[in-house]
Amino acid sequence: MRTTKAVRLLAAGAAVTALTLLSACGGGPDGHESGTSAAPASKAPVQQRAREPRVNVLPGMPPVEDPADLYSADRPNRLSPVVKDFPSRVYVPNTNSDTVSVIDPATYRVVETIRVGRQPQHVVPSWDLKTLWVNNDLGNTLTPIDPRTGRAGAPVDVHDPYNLYFTPDGKYAVVMASMDRQLVFRDAHTMKVAKTVPVSCYGVNHADFSIDGRYFIVSCEFSGEILKVDTARMEVVRQEKLPLHGAMPQDVKVSPDGKLFYIADMMADGVWILDGDAFTRPRFLATGKGAHGLYVSRDSRVMYISNRGEGTVSVFDFARDRLTAKWRLPGGGSPDMGGVSSDGKILWLSGRYNSEVYAIDTRTGGQLARIKVGSGPHGLAVYPQPGRYSLGHTGIFR
Fold first, then answer.
1. Around Cβ 286, how many Cβ atoms within 10 Å?
2. 143, 173, 235, 328 — which has fewest CB within 10 A?
């Protein structure tokens, strides 16, 4: 949730069971990350996967490696050749300071501060993995950062870029123009407008794509609604109000098998679970006050849910369809957006209202570090991460 724009919009009256293949890499108790290297796969699972039907994907989209686990390319340290030589860094946009703090995860220290445009909200990896885009929301620009050198380039004019996604075929960037009440499809490289899609809901902000890439689910923060958008047609095809007065949906994440979408809701204090294909009434899972960010573990077994309003992280087991743990930050905090380290051992989250960043051990839930950054840290990006391509936000990789 933003700060300045939220006040304006609200004042204006805008008022799993998921079947997964267990990874070859080991897991700790309750499915927490072990951080170990993947063991050789047995012949039986390989033969089983060979018999599974291929997913009929959006034309131009890379094939789905494993229909039972769309995160199979995100295994520990499985870096694309494009990014394998990039230095490991954590990029933190500070919305009130108009800067990006750059953290060296090996030392837990800020090694650089980059001046960007007004109110940076998220740092977003490009589809081709070569660029990090800083979304300067009130500055109406995107600042490109070269992750190989860490240098910022000339800003690109883009109006109201609260958040940014990429279509699975790599053709378009999708700007979540929250204040403008638009989804703006732009060329993924030049950022020239291809199509502007007006929406009737308030506060479009987060999204994720179906396993075949043919549609994506969008949350509308300030009107408590969700959208289903046809990727190829670039059109909203369904729109529904969440079944709770005052709902405020945030991050969106699809299950490993692609059958369900999870939608964090910071006012409902939990996660909505939606059948994306049918787009029927979602069910609800309470997690904690101010549920906000959603992050899948490197073995695809669990999802980490940041509860910003109470300083905790809930751990959700996909196969068991239930919460298995709740981690509390010592002394509290405001865990918001972030990502998982390349090896899967650390969950990095911004502390939105505490001017800090948290490093959390995914095996124990213990806090490894609390790092001071600028004011209002929001959508931080851990980079590089495993995966073949990026769908945007702080790093949704396939």
1. 13
2. 235
* Look-up of token digits 């295994």: 75
pLDDT digits (tens, 9 = 90+) for 129-183: 999 999 999 999 999 999 999 999 999 999 999 999 999 999 999 999 999 999 9
- A 10 A CB-CB count for 320 gives 14
Residue 121 and residue 135 in contact, taking contact as beta carbons nearer than 8 Å = yes
Strand ranges across the sheet with 322-328:
291-296, 302-307, 312-317, 322-328
Report d(CA 238, CA 156) in Å as an integer: 32
How many angstroms separate the CA atoms of 136 and 226, rounded?
Answer: 24
Q: Is 30 helix (H, G, I), strand (E, B) or coil?
A: helix
Phi, psi of 314 (to 5 degrees): -90, 145
Cα R_g (the chain), whole angstroms: 19
0.90 exceeded by the pTM? no
Nearest one of 150, 92, 136 to 338, comparing CA atoms: 92
133 closest CA partner among 78, 191, 178:
191
Phi, psi torsion values for 209, nearest 5 degrees? -105, 150
